[in-house]
Amino acid sequence: MTQEAPTATYFRHLTEGRFMLQHSPSTDEWVYYPRMIAPKTGATDMEWAAPSGLGTVYATTVKRMRPPAADVNIAIVELDEGPRMMTHVQGIAPEAVRIGMRVRACIVDGPDDAKILVFEPETAA
């Protein structure tokens, strides 16, 4: 039996409605982008685990689109667990996204019927 590639496993979890990242129990390192070996420690005991889904906007820009297409926010979000992800912040105007803004992960429909991970501003509960 062949093992599923880490990238395929990540996207399969999204398709199933679950945000999962790799985590090394021996080093407590969280890993994104999916891979076979943890980049900082070289750990190979990677397991799939659910992160909190919370993070902070680390960097942001607006991709200006030719009308009638809407402008799009592009952001790097640093998860509370440590990894950084390039993504979109949705639910507010692209220009309103700010460095330091707290955000929450959500899974949405992407191109070609794929599921993708984006973020929305975290709201007070």
Secondary structure elements and pairings:
Elements lengths: L5 H10 L5 E4 L4 E3 L15 E3 L4 E10 L8 E8 L4 E4 L14 E8 L5 E7 L4
Short description:
The chain folds into two domains: 1-50, no CATH class; 52-125, OB fold (Dihydrolipoamide Acetyltransferase, E2P).
Please describe what this structure looks like.
The protein has one helix spanning 6-15; strands at residues 21-24, 29-31, 47-49, 54-63, 72-79, 84-87, 102-109, 115-121. It is mostly beta strands. The strands form 2 sheets. A 5-stranded antiparallel sheet has the order 6-5-4-7-8. The protein has a 3-stranded antiparallel sheet with strand order 2-1-3, with no helix packed on it.
Q: Any idea what the CATH architecture of the largest domain is?
A: Beta Barrel
Question: Rough shape?
Answer: globular
Total E-strand runs: 8
| Integer-rounded radius of gyration | 16 Å
Low-confidence stretches: none
CATH topology name of the largest domain: OB fold (Dihydrolipoamide Acetyltransferase, E2P)
Count helical runs: 1
Main beta sheet strand tally, sense and closure:
5 strands, antiparallel
Mean pLDDT: 93
What's the order of the H and E elements?
A: HEEEEEEEE
Helical residues, percent: under 10%
Instruction: Give the end-to-end Cα distance, rounded to a whole number of Å.
Output: 46 Å
- The overall number of domains is 2
β-sheet strand percentage: 35-45%
CATH class of the largest domain: Mainly Beta
Alpha-beta content class = mainly beta
